[in-house]
Structures are given as structure tokens and as C-alpha cells.
Amino acid sequence: MPEEMSIFPRIALKPEVHDYLRNVFINKEVLAAVSQGEAEQRFQRLLSCLSHPPALTCVRASTHLASLEEIQHRLGEELKQQQKCDSQSEDISITILPHPHIPDVLLLPVIGPRPVVQLSSEVIVGAQCGSAVLRGAHVFAPGILATPKFMKTGDAVSVFSDLEGKCTRGNKDFKGKRVFVGNGVAEMDRSNIFCSDEPVKGVGIRMVEPLYQSPSFDGVLPSLAFLQGEVVALDKIRGKVERILQNAKALHLDCIKAHCFNSIKAVCTDQAQDTEGPPFPPQSFDRVLLDAPCSGLGQRPSMACTWNLKEICSYQPLQRKLFHTAVRLLKRGGVLVYSTCTVTLAENEEQVAWALNTFPCLTLQPQEPHIGAEGMLGAGLSPEQLRLLQRFSPELGWSVAEARGEGDSPTEQPESPTSLAHRANKDTIGFFIAKFLKS
Ligand SMILES: C[S@@+](CC[C@H](N)C(=O)[O-])C[C@H]1O[C@@H](n2cnc3c(N)ncnc32)[C@H](O)[C@@H]1O
């Protein structure tokens, strides 16, 4: 794809990570199936689409508390209210559509890039903060790296994302590589941001004209959110566990228990162990979801990834340790789902090949719904096995017209189910799902 057709430059990777990923996407098995040119083009498309936001935001609705239609309506009202506060405009329309294939998922089109005129005052934010702005967030003060020398509360500014991590905190006139993400109004003086004795908190720049208009769920999801079922959740980060418990409480889901625990050690050897909390006895779960810690290279939008190859490659061994636990905890006849939000073979198809070799009790199962692409060639899996995997590969479906929201505007005509389904299933983050049965 010609570079000039993209709004942002391709995601910036360390050269060693770029080469590693290129070898993944242009591996021998791929080259036996498609031409070198086609494989190279797919890889370049992946790098381009990773720096752009997906066309839609997906929300899983918890339909045990209200019908999908009611949630759709309430979500629309809350988002409208929120946007009214942000843009001070009365003329606000929010488009929320049911997913054409998944009954409890709502889709919110991301609108952009919009024709926003850049201002002379520049605020530079870190790449992660810039990505959050492209997904509908305001700029929180800790993410701000540079502001104009005399920036005061109420000043209108243009916000740019620092592409190479070169802007130092407190800079006044950064001229390095940066990309425009929209216009906002300062909620703090420069001195409050950089010269405070306390760690600075709260919104620093309120975005009024973001380049991409994306719904923000700040303060919305806890009342409407999206979990269902009987779940024991383990995470080693206490803050995540607390958030899960808060969400469960807001949803009146008493059946969700969450524990701060190292999952690698989640199987107990003492059969008399109380099963209220971890560690748990072997074979005590009907289903296990291993939503594994991963290199996260499928996350979009991401302008830059600063990780080195050692960091990227550190996940495969960790995932295998977690896999051992997951298989031990699962009952015979139980289902194990393994998922990641990355695009490497090492963390996806290679893990499946390893798991099938290591645990003869596991077999791959069909997935319902199956809306992603099949698994990627390169890990020695058979065509039948690849067909049972779901790899969400935005590079296979991403086109610039879609990324720009050209064609049918979401706010005008309702989008045709075919076109919506195409965008919802193809222009996604990079994601991988494998489903196993333990016999
Ligand atoms: C992809 S995220 C899972 C997200 C989760 N499904 C959710 O919806 O919040 C992977 C999680 O694994 C956690 N993690 C990493 N190593 C772990 C370990 N050894 N034990 C437990 N959790 C771990 C990370 O803290 C991270 O939150």
C-alpha cells in the first residue's frame, strides 16, 4: 500500500523487532502459499493498520440485566450526555448498531479522520497517551510531555503524539517526529503540570476536536457492563482484581470471584485444600479461559512499540507455564480457550502446535461464531487445524477507504448489514483464539 494513503506513519518498531516480525509474516510456509510480493504487502499493511484505530468499537452487553435494545438506548443516552459536556454542541448523534453475528455485542463506529485545523500552540504527549486519545480519551496530565511556555487554563491547543519517545518532560518547543491527534483546551496551567511537588493527576487537556471521534466509556461501563457466567478470575495485579470485583458488584454478579494470585501456582498438591480460593485442586474447573499475558502487538492504534526482541520473546515461556496450570485445572471433558492480542506465530500458532504435542489429551475444537480468519501458516499445523483457529488479521481486510470512514458515513444512512459485518469482523485489533477439548 502506498505510504501516502495512510494518515499516520506505520508503527515504529525497534529494527530487531521489525526484522523478527517480518520473518514471521514472510515465513517459508507462507511463501509456499502466496508470492513474496503478496506476503510483503500484507506485512506492510499490518504495520500501517496497527498505527490507525479500528473502524468500530465493540461492546459486550450484559443482557442478564436488560435487553440488548435497552442497553443500546441507555448507552446512546449516556454517550450523548458525555459528548454534550465535551463539545458544548447540541447537535449530537450517536450511532450504535447490533453486531450482525454476535447477539450480545454492540458496535460503535469510530468517525475519522475528521478535517480538524491545526493550531499554532502545540502540546506533545507520550505515544501511549496519543493512542488513548485516538480511542476517545482526554489527555491526562501525567501523559503530557511538552506544552507552550506560557500555557494557561482555557488555552486552545493542538495535541501531538511523540513518535520516537524523544520528547523530554517539560519541553517547550519540541521539533522531533510527532503526529497530530486533535485539538483541545487546557484544563491546567503549564506550571501545574510540570512544577508541582505532588504527582500530577486529572485531565490536563480536554479534547474538543479529536482527529478520530471514538466513544469513551469513562464512567459508563460500570453500570451497563459486559460480563456473564460463573467465573473465578485470577490476576497477579491487585488493581485489576479490584476492578473486576467492582464491575461484578455493579452488575449484581455474585457468581464472580476474583483473586490476586500467581496463576502459575494455582494448582494445589494437597487434595484437602479449601476450594474457596486458589490454589485449586487439579481437575476442578469445567472451563478455563487462558487470556494470556502477551506481547500485545495486535493492539491498535499504536504509533510506536519501544520493546526490544528479548521482551517480545519473553512471553512464550510464560504462556507455556500458564498453559500447564490451565490443563491441570481443567476436568476431563472440559473446554480450554487460549487467547492473545498479539500477531506473532510464537505466541499463537506455535503455542497451539506445542500444546497439541505436549498434552495428548487436548484436541482442537471448532469455534462458534467463527468470524476471524484462519490460523497463520508457519508453525507446522495442518490445514484442518488452521481452519479451527481464529486469527483476527486486520492486515487482510484493512483498506484505506475503510480506515478513513469514506463511503457511507455512519451518521447518515444506516450501514448495510454486509458492509457492517465486513468492517466489524475484519477491521479489528490483532487477536487470536484457540479452543481445546480435554479428553
Ligand atoms: C490479556 S490480560 C487478561 C485480561 C483479562 N481477560 C481482562 O479482561 O481483564 C493478561 C493478564 O495476565 C496477568 N498475568 C500475567 N502473568 C500472570 C500470572 N503469572 N498470574 C496471574 N496473572 C498474570 C496480567 O496482569 C494481565 O492482566
Automatic annotation (TrEMBL):
<protein>
    <submittedName>
        <fullName>NOP2/Sun RNA methyltransferase 6</fullName>
    </submittedName>
</protein>
<feature type="binding site">
    <location>
        <position position="291"/>
    </location>
    <ligand>
        <name>S-adenosyl-L-methionine</name>
    </ligand>
</feature>
<feature type="active site" description="Nucleophile">
    <location>
        <position position="341"/>
    </location>
</feature>
<dbReference type="InterPro" id="IPR049560">
    <property type="entry name" value="MeTrfase_RsmB-F_NOP2_cat"/>
</dbReference>
<feature type="binding site">
    <location>
        <position position="270"/>
    </location>
    <ligand>
        <name>S-adenosyl-L-methionine</name>
    </ligand>
</feature>
<dbReference type="GO" id="GO:0008173">
    <property type="term" value="F:RNA methyltransferase activity"/>
</dbReference>
<dbReference type="InterPro" id="IPR001678">
    <property type="entry name" value="MeTrfase_RsmB-F_NOP2_dom"/>
</dbReference>
<dbReference type="InterPro" id="IPR029063">
    <property type="entry name" value="SAM-dependent_MTases_sf"/>
</dbReference>
<dbReference type="GO" id="GO:0001510">
    <property type="term" value="P:RNA methylation"/>
</dbReference>
<feature type="domain" description="SAM-dependent MTase RsmB/NOP-type">
    <location>
        <begin position="228"/>
        <end position="439"/>
    </location>
</feature>
<dbReference type="InterPro" id="IPR036974">
    <property type="entry name" value="PUA_sf"/>
</dbReference>
<keyword id="KW-0808">Transferase</keyword>
<keyword id="KW-0694">RNA-binding</keyword>
<dbReference type="GO" id="GO:0003723">
    <property type="term" value="F:RNA binding"/>
</dbReference>
<dbReference type="InterPro" id="IPR023267">
    <property type="entry name" value="RCMT"/>
</dbReference>
<feature type="region of interest" description="Disordered">
    <location>
        <begin position="402"/>
        <end position="421"/>
    </location>
</feature>
<feature type="binding site">
    <location>
        <position position="235"/>
    </location>
    <ligand>
        <name>S-adenosyl-L-methionine</name>
    </ligand>
</feature>
<comment type="similarity">
    <text>Belongs to the class I-like SAM-binding methyltransferase superfamily. RsmB/NOP family.</text>
</comment>
<dbReference type="Pfam" id="PF01189">
    <property type="entry name" value="Methyltr_RsmB-F"/>
</dbReference>
<keyword id="KW-0949">S-adenosyl-L-methionine</keyword>
<keyword id="KW-0489">Methyltransferase</keyword>
<dbReference type="InterPro" id="IPR018314">
    <property type="entry name" value="RsmB/NOL1/NOP2-like_CS"/>
</dbReference>
<dbReference type="InterPro" id="IPR015947">
    <property type="entry name" value="PUA-like_sf"/>
</dbReference>
<feature type="compositionally biased region" description="Polar residues">
    <location>
        <begin position="410"/>
        <end position="419"/>
    </location>
</feature>
